[in-house]
Structure formats: structure tokens, C-alpha cells
């Protein structure tokens, strides 16, 4: 009888231990994709195709973001996969679900973005400007030379553009409605073309990108600022601190080189 009781007690202990292990495993947090997991796999980077960040020049790829990505690949030894997405919100969603590890584009460092993203050390300074056609006798009534004149006008931006928040705040500041048109599947560069061709009257894009397109679209004007100068950076998931620290080291090293020093 004692032997039978001992066997029963042992079975109870084993079942309890097994149950504890299974419960513990069930409640354990999922493995976070940080530097260790990425180093055993591939660093998935997403950027935007335009004449500043990433573009084809003859038979080669060029662009400020591409050059920095290429430097990090060489310096870190990590295999890097580059994807192209125009929509920032899509980039953020795919970052959060671990399709991408890094958003390598010039994202304004704002409180709103900081709620979802962890930013690297700033990569550039930029501002957003109004793109419109140069003033002529024919379009004199359309030409805008100060932000107050945006009242009751329609300004176009890419869908989910960072400029949307600034335009809404500007509307509050001038106490007049600024209508915001969001165009899906179109990047800022395509909006510049639409302004130049007369399909739309106004768009808001990054100044550096607008400057890069001035030679191609000589009839556009970008003299009216929409924002103050902003710090812009890359972004990673908030739960990837080791990757963030590593990127900051590589970015700092990149800009310490004489060729790339920030002005």
C-alpha cells in the first residue's frame, strides 16, 4: 500500500511539474527580433525611391540613403535586404510586424512619431515646403507667398505624409481651413510633376527633394516654407534597443568621415 501511495505521489509531482512548465512556456513573451536574431538572419531595410534617397543612375544605384545602407552593410558584416515603399504608414506597420527592421528614410522626429518609433541619431536637417507653379500673369491669383494665403486652399500630400500634422496645426494657427488632399500610391516626387503639369496647384514635400527636382521642373516655385527646420532620422522598433545602439554607432562613424561630415 505504501508503495502504491508513493507511486501516486510521484505521479502527482510529475504532472504538476509538467503543467508548470507548459503554463510558463505559454505565458513567456515571444522572442523579440533584435540584433542577435537579425545577425543570424538578414537586416531588412526599407527606403523610398526618389532622386535623393535611392535611385538608378545609369546602371548603378545611388542616393544618400543607399550610400549609408551600403556603408552599414560593409562595416557591420550583416547581410542586408533593401525594399522600397512609398507610404510611410505601410513602412511603420511592416516594421511593427517585423517584416522590416529599419526604416531608412528621412522621418521628422516628432512627438507623434516617437509614440510608435525609436529614432536613430539625427541624419539630416530638412524642412517641408510648398510646391506651386512660378508666378505669371495667368496664375497670379493662385500664387502664394505666405502661409496665411493657404486659407481655404487644397494642398496635396502623399497618403499618411508627415506633413499632414503640420498642415492641420497651421490651419489652427491661421484660424482658417486648409484642405488636405491625400493621394495614395503616389510619392512626393510624383506630386511635384503634377504641380508642374497643372494637374494640381499645391503640394508639400521635403525641401531637399524639391531642390533636386528644380532642374527637371523649372516652372515650379518652392520659396514658401511650411515647417521650420526639422531633425530627421531613421527608425526601428521600440523593442530593439541593441539594434538601435548599433545603428547609432555606424551612423556616427559614417558622418565622421570627411566626405560625409554634416555641415
Plain-language structure description:
There is one protein chain. The chain is an alpha/beta fold and 263 residues long. Helices cover 38% and strands 23% of the residues. It has helices at 2-27, 35-39, 64-76, 88-96, 111-114, 163-174, 188-196, 207-212, 241-256; strands spanning 43-47, 55-57, 60-62, 80-84, 102-108, 118-119, 124-126, 128-133, 154-158, 179-183, 203-206, 220-225, 230-236. Strands 1, 4, 5, 6, 7 and 13 form a six-stranded mixed β-sheet that branches. Strands 11-8-12 form a three-stranded antiparallel β-sheet. A hairpin with a 2-residue loop joins β2 and β3 (60-62). The relative contact order is 0.17. The model is unreliable at 8-17 and 23-27 (pLDDT under 50).
Which helices and strands occur, and which strands form pairs?
Blueprint: H1 2-27, H2 35-39, E1 43-47, E2 55-57, E3 60-62, H3 64-76, E4 80-84, H4 88-96, E5 102-108, H5 111-114, E6 118-119, E7 124-126, E8 128-133, E9 154-158, H6 163-174, E10 179-183, H7 188-196, E11 203-206, H8 207-212, E12 220-225, E13 230-236, H9 241-256
Parallel strand pairs: 1-4, 1-5, 9-10
Antiparallel strand pairs: 2-3, 5-13, 6-13, 7-13, 8-11, 8-12
Helix pairs in contact: 3-9
Amino acid at each position: 500500500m505504501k508503495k502504491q501511495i508513493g507511486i501516486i505521489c510521484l505521479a502527482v509531482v510529475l504532472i504538476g511539474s509538467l503543467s508548470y512548465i507548459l503554463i510558463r512556456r505559454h505565458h513567456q513573451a515571444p522572442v523579440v527580433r533584435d540584433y542577435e536574431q537579425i545577425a543570424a538572419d538578414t537586416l531588412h531595410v526599407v527606403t523610398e525611391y526618389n532622386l535623393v534617397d535611392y535611385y538608378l543612375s545609369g546602371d548603378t544605384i545611388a542616393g544618400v540613403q543607399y550610400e549609408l545602407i551600403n556603408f552599414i552593410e560593409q562595416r557591420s558584416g550583416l547581410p542586408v535586404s533593401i525594399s522600397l515603399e512609398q507610404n510611410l504608414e505601410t513602412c511603420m506597420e511592416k516594421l511593427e510586424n517585423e517584416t522590416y527592421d529599419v526604416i531608412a528614410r528621412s522621418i521628422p522626429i516628432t512627438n507623434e512619431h516617437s509614440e510608435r518609433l525609436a529614432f536613430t541619431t539625427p541624419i539630416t536637417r530638412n524642412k517641408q515646403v510648398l510646391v506651386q507653379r512660378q508666378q505669371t500673369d495667368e496664375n497670379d491669383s493662385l500664387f502664394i507667398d505666405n502661409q496665411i494665403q493657404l486659407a481655404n486652399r487644397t494642398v496635396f500630400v502623399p497618403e499618411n505624409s508627415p506633413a499632414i500634422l503640420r498642415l492641420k496645426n497651421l490651419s489652427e494657427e491661421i484660424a482658417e481651413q486648409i484642405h488636405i488632399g491625400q493621394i495614395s500610391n503616389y510619392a512626393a516626387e510624383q506630386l511635384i510633376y503634377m504641380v508642374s503639369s497643372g494637374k494640381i496647384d499645391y503640394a508639400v514635400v521635403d525641401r531637399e527633394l524639391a531642390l533636386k527636382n528644380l532642374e527637371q521642373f523649372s516652372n515650379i516655385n518652392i520659396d514658401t516654407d511650411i515647417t521650420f527646420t526639422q531633425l530627421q532620422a531613421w527608425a526601428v522598433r521600440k523593442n530593439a534597443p541593441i539594434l538601435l545602439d548599433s545603428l547609432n554607432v555606424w551612423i556616427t562613424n559614417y558622418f565622421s568621415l570627411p566626405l560625409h561630415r554634416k555641415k
